[in-house]
Design a protein that fits this description.
By secondary structure, the chain is an all-alpha fold. Helix content is 72%, strand content 0%. It contains seven helices and no strands. Helix 1 packs across helix 4. The longest helix has 31 residues. The radius of gyration is 20 Å and the shape is flat. The protein starts with 10 loop residues before the first helix and ends with a helix.
Length: 191
């Protein structure tokens, strides 16, 4: 149905385009849930999904729909569950590493800096549920700087989290074998 609520500010069209983008991203994700459509898949295919809706609700879909207006859904439609797990895993590992570093920091300035950086990362993760900031020139530079500064403040002890995970060789070998088998299976299914 049409997502229409009259607003004198014009914000209704802005919200409706997000609802459409989210629906299209979920459609693309459900079509290829494991590996997604490939990097940039939403940008290439999302607009094609809008054809029927443009006729019913032209105002929010009057321009090219280049993004899903939700980073996590767009990552899912582009890279599938594998990409979502990798991206969210890296972000959660960064939060975990920063949290583990907190008790070791003795300087008040370092603690406040780490707190601000962790808060900024969490805020970005929430904000990207409604925006496309990480796909616009300039902002990714700041985002990755925040990630790097968190790991710099976390120090080598927090990097030990990754090293501890790698010590479980049996799990690592099984993961590589499972990934290889899944890759072969998916390649065969794609033919």
């Amino acid at each position: 149905g049409q997502r229409h609520a009259v607003s004198p500010t014009g914000r209704n069209a802005s919200m409706r385009v997000r609802f459409y983008g989210w629906d299209y991203a979920l459609d693309l994700l459900s079509a290829r849930p494991v590996l997604g459509e490939g990097q940039g898949g939403f940008t290439l295919l999302g607009d094609d999904l809008a054809v029927a809706d443009v006729e019913r609700d032209p105002l929010p879909l009057s321009a090219w729909l280049a993004h899903a207006h939700n980073e996590w859904l767009e990552v899912g439609s582009d890279l599938g569950a594998v990409g979502m797990i990798l991206v969210l895993g890296a972000l959660l590992l960064t939060l975990y590493g920063g949290g583990r570093a907190w008790p070791r920091l003795t300087s008040r300035r370092q603690r406040f800096s780490l707190m601000a950086l962790l808060a900024a990362l969490v805020a970005w993760m929430v904000e990207e549920m409604f925006g496309v900031g990480l796909r616009i020139e300039g902002l990714p530079l700041v985002f990755y700087t925040v990630l790097g500064l968190i790991w710099a403040l976390a120090g080598p002890e927090s990097v030990g989290v990754i090293a501890a995970l790698s010590r479980h060789r049996v799990v690592g070998v099984l993961a590589v074998v499972a990934a290889a088998l899944a890759g072969v299976f998916l390649a065969e299914q794609a033919r």
